[in-house]
Input
Amino acid sequence: MKRLISMFSLAAMLVILVAPSALAAPALVIPIDTWIEAPAGSFVHLATVETPPELIGASCLGLAAAENGSSVHPNNDIIIETGGTTAVLEDVEGTSGKVTSSVGVVTLGPEVTLTLHMGDHGQFSGGLVVAIDVNCTPPTTLPPPVPEIGIVKSADVEFYVNNTGEFTIDVTNTGPVPLHDVHVTDAYAVAIDPGSDCPAVIGDLAVGETSTYSCTIAGLDGVSSYDNVAIAIGTGPLGTEVTATDNAQVFPIKDVTVTTQAPPTTQAPVTTQAPGTTSAPAGTLPVTGINGDAMEGFGVAGVILIMGGIVLLSGAALVGQRRTDR
Output
């Protein structure tokens, strides 16, 4: 007849039988009190329990204990699976009252699962307690990730016109965690132009996300250069505030000479000649409308008016000449 022992007396027995310093008290106790019949070599789910939050990530030794009367079922193994690790409690019912320690060390995850690997008899009596050692290596505490933020401020035009500077601002979550309450301050811009939109509220930025916007600063005096700093501010999940700064400079336009182009000149109209007429050689006035007899009637050094022009005929050219072709 099988006699079950209480969870607490069994845990105390584990402390004595395993090692005086191995266990102070079990951190995680899983009672198994189920009669199971299944084919030899099969796998049967026994239990799944949650790990105490303070032990998640700890490396521990798994233990099991059972006290049997006359019932013995050899080669029944219990497999412990948790946190991606596995340990095996071998032959837990091999003898009456046997205490079995695990072959392997487990690293506790959020849950612990126990699975029975059925032995040769095809029977499991239960009455076991699986205990996870409290004196295990504490979980490694990693520092929380550090949030980061970045900002780039650039002038759209290096030389400002109309007394207004134009800028582009990029704010990026450069860290490993999300940011919230992200905003940009630009005190210098506001001091010059209270209506400047360079200060801005962005809100949340996911990891690697960038927010881009354009802004202006009016009221520049037209003779000074301006170099101001924008500050990006964000808050990480644990309340850590991070900042980043960048500046941009703009210059006035000075000594600008405006050159205007002279209007194009117009060409005098071209006079066209009537068809069938010929032009006189350059420097010669044409003599028309007079025959040879009339020409003889003019004396030496005669002056004639022809076509509104004045032609001086040389007397030497006319002396002794008469037309013979009459």
